[in-house]
Amino acid sequence: TINRLLRTGEQLTPAVLSKIESAVATIQEVTDIEVQIEQEMSVETLVLLHAMDRLKDKEKINRFLAEGKVIVADRWFTSTLAYQSTQGFPLEKMLKLAELMEMPKPDIVIYLKISAETSMKRKFGEKGSLDKFEKDRPLLEKVVLTYDRLCSENVFGNWFLIDGNRSKEEISQEISKIVGIVSQKVPSQAI
C-alpha cells in the first residue's frame, strides 16, 4: 500500500512522500533474535527496545518536517503501543515515555483492520513461515482489539479505519482519498 501511495504521490505536491527506514540495525537485531529463538524478554525490555527503534528516526522525521515533507511510516509507534500494551505494559506509561522523549506524533494513523486469521494467512503467504508472534492467534486477536481501542480513542494521532479485507485496489483508493483530504487541511506537516 505504501508503494502504491508513493507512486501516486504527485497528487500531494508540494509535499514529498518519504518512507522511514531503520538506521540502527542492532536494535532490530536484538528484537529479531528474541523472535527467532523464541526466548522470552520482559515486556518492559521489549517496550524500551521498540521505543529506541522508533526514537532513532526522530531527528530524520523532524528534519523532513522542517523541509515541508510529508512522512509515511509503515507500522511506527502505534504498533508498539498496540503490541506492548496487549502484552501487559500500561498504555499510559508508553504515552508518557513518548511525551518525555518528544516522539513526533502523526497527524493521521491509517488502520488497516484485518482479522488475526487473515493476518496469519497473509504473513504465511509472504514468508512461508510464521514467527512466534505471527503464529500466536490468541495474542493477535487481543492485538486487534487493542488496535480497535486505540483507533476509537484516537490515541497518539487522528485515526482512520479501513477494512483491510477488501482488495488492494479498493484499499489503495481509500488511502489516497484520506491522504488527499488531510494533506489539503494540513499542508507541510507529517501525515
Q: Could you walk me through the main structural features you see in this protein, from its secondary elements to its overall organization?
A:
With 191 residues, this protein is mainly α. The protein is built from nine helices and four strands. It has helices at residues 2-7, 25-37, 43-55, 58-66, 77-86, 91-100, 116-127, 137-152, 168-185, and strands spanning 17-19, 70-72, 108-113, 158-163. The strands form two sheets. Strands 1-2 form a two-stranded parallel ribbon. The protein has a two-stranded parallel ribbon with strand order 3-4. The longest helix is centred in the last third of the chain and has 18 residues, at 168-185. The chain is globular, with a radius of gyration of 17 Å. Mean pLDDT is 79; it is low at 1-27 and 187-191.
Based on the model shown, name its key terms:
9 helices, globular, mainly alpha, 191 residues, two-stranded parallel sheet, disordered N terminus, two-stranded parallel ribbon, 4 strands
Helicity range:
55-70%
Strand order of the largest sheet: 1-2
Given the C-alpha coordinates, what overall shape results?
globular
How many DSSP-defined strands? 4
Which structural class do the helices and strands define?
mainly alpha
The average pLDDT is 79
Low-confidence stretches: 1-27, 187-191
Radius of gyration: 17 Å
Strand composition percent: 5-15%
